[in-house]
Specification:
This protein has helices spanning about 1-10, 20-35, 60-75, 100-110; strands at about 40-45, 50-55. The protein is mainly alpha-helical.
Amino acid sequence: MREQFERSRMTQDPFMLTKPRRTVIRHAINETARASAWRVLCVNVRTNHVHVVLETVAEPARARNSLKSWCTRRMREAGLAARDAKVWAEGGSARFLWTPEAVEKASHYVMFEQGPDLD
């Protein structure tokens, strides 16, 4: 029921992350992290969502929003997203990982529990 409700709210087709888009997203994540003095521990860009584990002192939601913004900007610059395209869903998970065990668990999930490698 939730999926039906969310689909009814959509004003455009889902924005799929094709191989060229995934490549731009990975580069934009690394570029944003370097510029922000964040450390990317792992990233997994899927066809319809992205997982990132960062080492940062930034608020998680702020880091997530910055990454989404820069990824969108870079895709638009590359001609891979129209100016009016809604690229991301609102929000998304963003939280601190307080222990090495939590970081390890999240990293394992991101790298090994998302299905087969895409490219």
